[in-house]
Amino acid sequence: MTDLAETRPAGARDGEPSTASAEPLETAPEPAAGPVTPAPEPAAEPVTPAPEPAAEPVTPAPGPAAEPAEPVEPPAPPVRSRAVRLLRLVAYVALPAELVLFVVLLGGVPIPRGVFAVSEVVLLALLLAEGLTYLRLRRRGLSRRAAVAELVPESVLRIMGHELRIMASLGRWVARRPVDVADADAVFPHARDQAALMYGFAFVCLVESAGMSYLLADWPVVHAIVLVLDVYTVLFVLGLQAAAVTRPHTLTGDVLRLRQAAHVDVSVPLDRIASVRHELLFTHDKKAEGELNLAVGSQTSVTVELTEPVDAPRFFGASRPVRLIRCHADDARALYRALDEAVTRVRTAPSPSPGPPPRA
């Protein structure tokens, strides 16, 4: 067996590793990398979603049948207390009894003192009870007008208010102070064509007063009472004319205000007027539905038709809606022209600008 001798360099010591020179290994050159062209991916096939099953309509479970809604009734007017109703009943009986007693006394029929005393006590007690009830209603929070309306019937209040306005018109007529014309754009009087009739009626009342005064000269008490009534009648007739003079028709802003004496006052917005006509009429149907005729001297000269009804007051009872109003003015053509121009102005007025849109 042949021994393999390890070749050592000269001078090398034992135990040192041999340092035979190793020749460098030559590596083969790598080929130049060319541009890598990615392999084309296969085109993705369009995915068609599977059709969903049609949803079946859900039928709600039948519930209990809904009960029909009951009609809402308007609130009932406040029920007056038993004391107020009792006071009204006593007043309805006591006041006519006092009037009958007064007439009997004027006729010269002797009245027992006891009957006269009882009637006066009842009247004073009624007035005292009315006053105490009024104070109690005021303490409950009612206004003066509402408290009086609880005690006095509405018809009586209207008559009293009308009488007071008539008498107040006499003072305004003398002082030349018309009612509510300071802020009016135009004023249209309407009492001229009835003046002759009213003055003639007042003169007839004066003649009648003089005749009754002569005939009743032998009955001083009756003479005095009739004289007071005659004077009041003359003042009332003159007051009717004064109320017409001091309450003319007015045009203020966009509202036409039509009045007659002291009992009719109607405000008509101009945007509700459909047409205005100047026509002279002497006959009017007083029972026509939805019409208001404010005749002066049995004539009207301006007709106003409305697109929507307005409320016209009645002397007794609630107001009623009207869509046609006939009125009169001393200068009817001036009223027609002013009203026609005002209605045209309201119809052609530009609409208000909406302004810039709000910012986000």
Describe the overall structure.
- This protein has 360 residues and is of the alpha+beta class.
- It has three domains: 82-152, no CATH class; 158-182 and 191-247, no CATH class; 248-348, Roll (PH-domain like).
- The protein has seven helices and eight strands; from the N terminus they run H-H-H-H-E-H-H-E-E-E-E-E-E-E-H.
- The protein has a four-stranded antiparallel beta sheet with strand order 1-2-3-4, covered by helices on one side. A four-stranded mixed beta sheet has the order 5-7-8-6, covered by helices on one side.
- Strand 7 and strand 8 (320-327) form a beta hairpin.
- Helix 1 runs antiparallel to helix 2 (113-139) and helix 5 runs antiparallel to helix 6 (220-246).
- The longest helix is centred in the middle third of the chain and has 27 residues, at 113-139.
- The chain starts with 81 loop residues before the first helix and ends in a 13-residue tail after the last helix.
Features:
alpha+beta, four-stranded antiparallel beta sheet, PH-domain like, 360 residues, 3 domains, four-stranded mixed beta sheet
**Strand arrangement, largest sheet?**
1-2-3-4
What is the name of the CATH architecture of the largest domain?
Roll
How is the CATH topology of the largest domain named? PH-domain like
The count of domains is 3
| Helix-strand string | HHHHEHHEEEEEEEH
Structural class: alpha+beta
- Measured by DSSP, the beta-strand proportion falls in 5-15%
